[in-house]
Amino acid sequence: MSSPDAVFEPKGLVPTAEQRAIQLARKAHLIIEANAGAAKTTTLALRLAQALLRGADPTRVLVLTYTDAAVQAFQDALARMGLPAATRRAVQVSTFEAFCAARLRHIEGTDTPTLPLAEQRRPHVLAAIARVQQRMDEPYPEALSIHDSGEASVEGLLASFEYLKGTLLLHTEAADRRLSPALAAELGQDYMTLKVLRAYEHIRRGGHPDHPVFRGPQDATYDLACLLRDDEGWLGGETGQDHPLALGLQLLLVDEMHDTNRAMFTVLRELMARNHAGFVGVGDRDQVIHALTGADATFMGETFDREVAPATRLPLSTSWRFGPRLAQAVSRVARHKPYAAQTARDTAIELIRTTDLADQRWQLTRLVRDRVGLPPEAPLSAIAILLRHPHQSVELENLLLDHGLDYRTTGFQPYLQRPEVLFVRGLYACGRACLEGIERVEVRQAVLNALLSFSGSFVSEGDDGAPASSDAPDAQARQQKLQAQAIREVAQQPTLAQAFLNNQVLRNAPSAVRERLEDALDVLDSDDPEQLQRRFMAVLQPQALAERVLVRSQDIAQVVGNIEGLIRSAHGFDHLTSFFRAMNERELRQQAMKAQHCLLLSSIEAAKGLEFDHVIVPGLNRGEFAPGGDTVDNRNLLYVAMTRARQRLTLLCDADRPSAYLREAGLL
Question: Given CB 3.0 to 4.6 Å as the disulfide criterion, which of 21, 112, 181, 478 pairs with 143?
């Protein structure tokens, strides 16, 4: 064991005064209040190296974080510090989810199958929707907002489930209360979502007394948190077994602590209660975005002090990612929290105030094509365009496709693959008998599925327009099989498309929906882009269509935004024929794009933890970037977007309605 006064000297790093203070602090509970780009992970690794030098047993150290990428980043940081490989291997570094899954294996005595992909969980969500819809004793049938099988709602429901489980909302705010529309509204949720979640959890648990039938992402953390809440004091004491979280830890560290939600914190709190361990956590509370999985800044603040122990807090304010000018701007966005920059080079900030859509297109093309502010040889992957709303990508994707600039999306689907866009393409292709213009059979199938889904329609067996064997026990499975077979047949023989539209989609749609579809088909049949711009949204009423098949208000708004963006993109075409042909050609170009070394088009949320030489953020307009006003989430989203930049940050706004955040940041 080294002298208690020995100081660990890392390889390749000269710690700043802030880092050295964190490294040497002798506090039982230490929380590091960090800024973006301030080397959080490196500093936490430095703190661990110092503890090991002082005699901590590496086998009794646990490091928890949120993602597999963060686990790897921490292990890499330990290697850069110069710690021996054997020591690094002895330290347990894990995501919360993997740690909880391992503890549940210990408790349950068996492995539970995991279903990481949404497609794997889709049948269980659909079964839960069907169970809710078929309950004869439902007290509030008028509040069940889905009017079809729920296919289109699966993705949104799974996202809502992850948030509800992360926050433990039904356990903390609705325990022992009867579920009702009024309670759902009080919780800020949709009644249908809460009902389907309960049905889904019943299916997932499978009635098994000891372990679930399956787990999805973050379910291990949720299940362990629920077990800890339901069995406070732990029954293992009666059998002489140790508590499964009593691991003899000496030190517990949490990286990216700003991502902590109530389920994770429940596990963390129990770990601290069951181990005589020191604690060090690091995070940036201005990167908390509640909409994802229920992360909350209070778990770094007053909740930790109240439920675990009062913590000492030290700052980590110096960014290594970007220069002083950007540090000053994001300090203002974050309500003037201290911010400094270590790098000698500055980060250029450009605010472009565009006069109209054509000007915005020209500016974005120039920025990307000419690699503005970057070396001419810089790859497209050095550039990221970060969007507040997915529907903003419609215009951008068309621009990139038409200029031959390769891109990939993260945080949302490419717009040509979105169900509502496929629905409009399907109306045109089937109504004008030109489905063969969509070359790929799998895209034709997706188009036909979207037509049925948004129309609230179905495929019928005979001439009576009834679903397949509606009174049979396996009616749902038979109906799905019939529909899949019909769609495959039409996709392979596109000359059948018009008959499919008339005899299946229109005939079997609810009468009010059928009238809107027929009016929309009249607009498309005119072949006139001006009529499309002027009349299509009014006659189709996409919000009403979306409300029949989707649950979450944000998903419904995105449907409307995507169709509006699609209609706007018809501007400049002489005929709708050429417009839809161009969409088919763009789709083929998109399929041919390179997967590597391409520009990233991303939601701001999905860009957390990433950094780029040049970050472009369009749409910083009043009422558009922050539609809900000056909320913590909106402010944090802008903070996250701005702090992804290394060399250059470009912000675009409408000259007549710039966001107030731009003035706050000192850029206006």
Answer: 181
